[in-house]
Design a protein that fits this description.
The complex is a heterodimer of chains A (about 110) and B (about 110).
Chain A (H helix, E strand, L loop, with lengths): L2 E5 L2 E5 L4 E8 L3 E9 L5 E6 L6 E3 L2 E6 L4 E6 L8 E9 L5 E3 L3 E6 L1
Parallel strand pairs in A: 2-11
Antiparallel strand pairs in A: 1-3, 3-8, 4-5, 4-9, 6-7, 7-8, 9-10, 9-11
Chain B lengths: L2 E5 L2 E4 L5 E8 L5 E7 L5 E9 L2 E4 L5 E7 L2 E6 L8 E8 L6 E3 L3 E5 L1
Parallel strand pairs in B: 2-11
Antiparallel strand pairs in B: 1-3, 3-8, 4-5, 4-9, 5-6, 7-8, 9-10, 9-11
Classes of the chains: A mainly beta (about 110), B mainly beta (about 110).
Chain lengths: ~110, ~110
């Protein structure tokens, strides 16, 4: 069974801090790793990582994948209160489109 | 551009009553479609996925069922709800193998 483990499960930071979220995976026939942001409603897509060592960036968010050590990190720099959310990591297998999700990293940014 | 809609957004149902959640995708053809459930304090769990009309795969045994009567329509049903069916249900779609999966707005179900 595919396994996706995220850490820390929750954290509280102050505005302006940098946050690093971790996601490790054990997946048969791994294809990609995806990050989503969930704010009380449906998850919104952030990144899809397929190749090792290539950083993807979107504004203050960035993510990278290490396929040798089987993990990914999501970084948020200069955090804002609008970054408060649950960040979900999910693995995608080759040959089908089933996502296996971790339990999420709950981030609370306080002013 | 592609959009996904699901409804109703919120519903409260008594134990033993039927359920029907509907999801439609616009702007694409032959999408892969999914139903996920997110229970309180737990991760997203895949319930059903479909690669085409009438083709449904079930991931977990339960009293729920899914149907795909049209290419871009996916329905989640139950004949008799249980308390444990309460949760946040998400429909999702992707353009094919290896593509990103996008989620609908979600439906909050409370079984009382």
């Amino acid at each position: 069974e595919d396994k996706v483990v995220q850490s820390p499960l929750s954290l509280v930071v102050h505005e302006g801090d940098t946050v690093t979220l971790n996601c490790s995976y054990e997946v048969t026939n791994f294809r990609s790793l995806l990050w989503y942001k969930q704010e009380k409603k449906a998850p919104t897509f952030l990144f899809m990582l397929t190749s090792s060592g290539i950083e993807k960036k979107s504004g203050r968010l960035s993510s990278i994948l290490d396929k040798k050590e089987l993990f990914s990190i999501l970084n948020i720099t200069a955090t804002q209160t609008g970054d408060s959310a649950v960040y979900l990591c999910a693995s995608l297998r080759s040959g089908n489109n089933r996502l296996a999700f971790g339990k999420g990293n709950q981030v609370v940014v306080i002013p | 551009s592609q959009t996904i809609h699901q409804w109703p957004a919120t519903l409260v149902q008594p134990v033993g009553s039927p359920l029907s959640l509907e999801c439609t995708v616009e702007g694409t053809s032959n999408p892969n479609l999914y139903w996920y459930r997110q229970a309180a304090g737990r991760g997203l769990q895949l319930l059903f996925y479909s690669v085409g009309i009438g083709q449904i795969s079930s991931e977990v045994p339960q009293n729920l069922s899914a149907s795909r009567p049209q290419d871009r329509q996916f329905i989640l049903s139950s004949k008799k709800l249980l308390l444990s069916d309460s949760g946040f249900y998400l429909c999702a779609w992707s353009g094919g193998l290896g593509n990103t999966i996008y989620f609908g707005e979600g439906s909050w179900l409370t079984v009382v």
